[in-house]
Amino acid sequence: MPPQYRQAGPDNPSRKVITHVCGIVGYTGADPALPFLLEGLERLEYRGYDSAGVALVEPDGVYVEKAAGRLSSLVAIVDKSRPAHVGIGHTRWATHGPPTDDNAHPHTDCTGRIAAIHNGIIENYRELRAELQAAGHVFSSETDTEVIPHLLEARAGYSLGDAALYARQRLEGAYAFLAVSADEPDAVVAVRQASPLVLGLGETGNYLASDITALLPYTRDVMILDNGEMAVITGRDVEIRDGAGTVVERAVSHIEWTAEEASRGGYPHFMLKEIMEQPDAWSDCLRGRIGADDSILLEELGLCPGDLESVDRIQLIAAGTAYHACLIAQRWIEEWARVPVRVDVSSEFRYQRPILSPGTVVVAVSQSGETADTLAGVSLAKDAGFPVWAVTNVVGSTLAREVHRVLYTRAGPEVSVCSTKAYTTQLLVLALLADALAGVHSTEPRASVIPHLQSLPGLGAEWLSERRSLGPAITRVASSPSVFYIGRGVDYAVALEGQLKLKEISYIHAEAYPAGELKHGTLALIEQGVPVVAVMSSGALLPKVRSNIMEVRARGGSVLAVIPESLAGEMDDLAETTIPIPTTDERVAPILAALPLQLLAYDVATSLGRDVDKPRNLAKSVTVE
Ligand code: AGP
User: Fold this and answer.
1) Which of 343, 368, 373, 502 to mutate to test the pocket of ligand 1 (most atoms within 8 A of CB)?
2) CB of residue 394 inside a 6 A radius of ligand 1
3) H helices of 236-365, where?
4) Which helix (H) or strand (E) element contains residue 15?
5) Does residue 66 have an active-site annotation?
6) Per the domain annotation, does 420 fall within a domain?
7) In this structure, are 385 and 415 located in the same domain?
8) I need a labelling partner for 123 at 20 to 30 A (CA). Which of 308, 485, 536, 608 fits?
9) Which DSSP category does 519 fall into?
10) Of 325, 328, 319, whose CA–CA distance to 348 is shortest?
11) Beta partners for 365?
C-alpha cells in the first residue's frame, strides 16, 4: 500500500527532536551568575538559535526559566533579582523538531534538583529514555537531552562528577553537556564528546562555554577540553578527568582574539570558517543515519516506511546553490536508482504548468527554508495533490512546516551569504536519498556508496589542513574580466556552483559550460590569458575533457584544473595550475571538488578586498519574489 501523506507532526519521524549546534554557558564563583549567563548567551546569538534558557542553583532546588524564540523573550520573564552564584545557560538551534518552551533547555530530573544543557546529538536516546521510563523517570519534553538529567539522577549518592562520568559511558553520539545540582551547590560539571567546550579561568570564578566568544569580556585565560574529558569546576578549583577517569593537567592558553574574531572562530570571515567546518558538518549529517550493514536508516533521514516504493518520478525544485545541488542529485538518482528526475529553478517552476504524473514526489531543496520562490513551488505541488518532501537546514522554517517529509542537512547555522557547508550537506542528504531509492528501485548490481560517503569527512579534513596558496592563479583570476568553468557530466553541475561562488563574492563575471559545448559559440571569447577552470572531479571522460582543454589552450586560455591526485599528472602539459583533490570513488568526488572551488572564489574575493560575508545586492534568505 502506498504511504499515506500527512503534514509533519509529533507522531511523524520527520519531526523527531535532535538538538545541535547550540550555545552553552556556565558560571560558578563569587559573582551573581545570571548577568554573565545572559550576556554570554547574547554573545552567542550570532550562531543562530530558536529558544533560550537558564538554570540557577538555589538552596531548595534549581530555578529554571526558558522560552521559545529570541533571547529577549527569556530576558523578559527571568527573575533578575535571583542572587545565585552558580548557573548554566543555553541557546538551542534544533535540526529536528519544534522549537517550543518545553523543548528548550535546561532540562531537569524528576526531583527538580538537577538541570542540564546540551549541544549535539545523542544517538541512543530512545533506548535510554525507555530504560529510564521503565525505572520510573518521568519525561516532559521530546528532546534527546532530557535523558541526561535523568541519568545523573539515577546515580543518586554519587558525586556530580562521578554521575557525569557514568552518563558519558551511557551516552552515544557527538555531544557536550553541562549540569548543575542543588546537592552540590558550588559545582558545574562539563562533558565533552566531539562538541566543543572551553573552560575560562576568571578573577572571581570560573566559566564554561561552547565558544570563546562568550567568555572574552570576563577572561582570556582558557583551557580547551579534549574529546572524552569531563571537568568539574567550582569558584576556586578546576578538575579535568580523561576518558579513564584519571585527573589530567591542562595548560592555560591566553586568547588574543577580539570578540569579533572569536565569533568567527578566529577566521577572518564566516565564509572561511564555514568552508573549514565542512568535514564536521558532513559527520553530523551522516551521524546515526547509517545502519551496521551500510543500510540507510530511513526514519533517521526523515522518511517513513514505504515512502520510497511508490516513487515513480522525482521533481526537484530549488534556487541558486541549492539548484546546483539538485542538478548533481538528478545524475545520482537517475544513474543509481534509474528513477527519472526533472529539475527546475523554483522561480520558473512556480509559473509553469508542470506535468506531474501520478507517482511523482516533489522535493524542494533550500538551506533557509524561507526562499519565496521555492515555497510557492511547494504550494503549487501540494495544491495539485502531490507529496512534497524538503531538504533543508533550518528547523521550524516555513518549508519544514509546509511539507510532508523533512530531510535535515544538519550543517549548523550558516552565516555567510555565500552558501558552502549547506551546499555540501545538501549533496550528502541527496546522495543518501539516491542510494536509498536505488536500494528499492534498481536491480543492477553495484558497490555500496556508503563507505565512500563515510570517508569524506576524513578526506576533506586532511585536504583542508594541507591547503596551499594558489598564488599566481589567484592573481590571474582576480585580474580577469571574465572566467569560464567547464566540466562534463556531473562536473558541469559542479562547475555551475563554482562559477556562482566566484561571481557572488568577487563580482567577476563567470560562466559555466558543459566542456563539449564551448566550441559551439563560447570558444570565441577565449583569448590569451582568459582563465578557464576545468573540473574533473573523478577523471570520468578525461580524454574528452583533455580535448576540450586543448581547444582552450590553442586560443591562449589559461587552464586551472581540479582533478584527483592520482590523475594530476595528466594535466602537466595542459594546465597552468593544477589543484589535486583526494582520489576517491567517482560517485562522491563532486562533494570534495566543491572545496577548491569555494576556496578559489574566497581567495580571489579577499584579494580584491570584497565584503565576502555580505556581498553587495544579496541577502542570505530571499523571502521576496
Ligand atoms: C548561494 O551562495 C546563494 N547565496 C544563493 O544562491 C542561495 O543558495 C539561494 O538563494 C537559495 O537559498 P536557499 O537554499 O535558502 O533556498
Assistant:
1) 368
2) no
3) 259-263, 270-276, 278-286, 298-301, 320-332, 346-349
4) none
5) no
6) yes
7) yes
8) 308
9) G
10) 319
11) 318, 391
CA distance 584 to 586: 6
Three-point CA angle 260, 262, 267, nearest 5°: 90
Instruction: State mean pLDDT over 200-222.
Output: 92
pLDDT exceeds cutoff 70 at 19? no
624: buried, middle or exposed (CB in 10 Å: 19+, 13-18, 0-12)?
Answer: exposed
615 located within any domain? no
Residue 445 CB coordination number (10 Å): 5
450 with 481, same domain: the answer is no
Looking at the structure, tell me whether residues 85 and 226 fall in a common domain. Answer: yes
Among 463, 498, 531, the domain-final residue is: 463
- What is the radius of gyration, based on Cα positions, of the chain? 25
Q: For residue 559, what is the domain's CATH number?
A: 3.40.50.10490
Is residue 223 domain-shared with residue 193, that is, in the same domain? yes
Environment class of 442 (CB within 10 Å of its CB; exposed 0-12, middle 13-18, buried 19+): middle
Q: Which tens digit of pLDDT belongs to each residue from 292-306? A: 899 999 999 999 999
Rama region for 203: left / alpha / beta (φ>0; ψ in -120 to 50; rest): alpha
**Who has greater pLDDT, 11 or 224?**
224
* Overall pTM surpassing 0.85 (yes/no): no
| Ligand 1, atom 5, residue with closest C-alpha | 320
- Assigned domain for 9 exists: no
Type of residue at 280: D
Q: Is 382 a catalytic residue?
A: no
Verify whether ligand 1 is closer than 6 Å to residue 417 (CB atom). yes
Could you give the 3-state DSSP secondary structure of residue 255? coil
| CB hemisphere CA count around 113 (13 angstroms) | 12
Q: Domain check: are 414 and 552 in the same one?
A: no
